[in-house]
Hints:
A: mainly alpha
Amino acid sequence: MKFLRSNFILFHFLFIIVVSYSNQCLTFVTVFSQEDNKKGFGIQERERARLHTEDNSQIVKNDFTGLILIGTIIAIIGVSSYALYKIYLIRRKSNKSKVKK
Amino acid sequence: MLSTFNNNTILLLVILFLLSIQFSYSDNHNNRSLLHNNADLLGWISISCGLIANIPFILYLRVKKISVKKLGGGDSLTRNLALEHSPILNFHIALNLVGFVAGLFHGILLIRGIDFISISLTIVITTITVSGILLRFAKFRVLNQFNRIMHSHVILSVLLLILIILHILIP
């Protein structure tokens, strides 16, 4: 394990990770910016793309799924607000107990 | 400076390294087709990883809590369960990260079939995963408290379950 902690190995790891992620991002940008016929998408993907082209407003029209997205965002904001409020309560309680001492 | 790196940092680096595995798009057309045709399979892999990683972990936490309450901290069963915490947690993190990456690629490959349910699912999964990673690696107490509440809140868990079911049922 001592060998793993040496500076050389850690820098080497960091370098490989940074290069790999950059390469991965470039590959995705290159592949997904190509034209459709060059992408080699599968049949299922083509069928889905065709369906979406036929009714490209489907994503906006469907109120039910739209409500789910709004509900999700509200839930996440609600939970994070609850977490912050809980932390505030804990801190206030600890501050009060410090003052009493 | 780097000599102060601890085991957690090394573990984080290893996980990042494993996640940076390269896909070959350019050389072989069959590989690309294979990946795109199996995009649905990646979604099922993600769901399976989530189930395998979370159900035993939640059961373990429940049993541990009950044993502490009923038997007390000094009992051998409680102590044995406490000793198992670290490996079970590592299993939970590793498998969930695999599931997250599989789900990510499933989403990227089927990006054209995106709908509001998929977007909601992505938001919830990313929130829970990021809070979990921060909970494991962050050092600040306030951040840990915040992430603990976010990661283990029942509303987000139920929402995730509902969204997964809707995602499967509504293609």
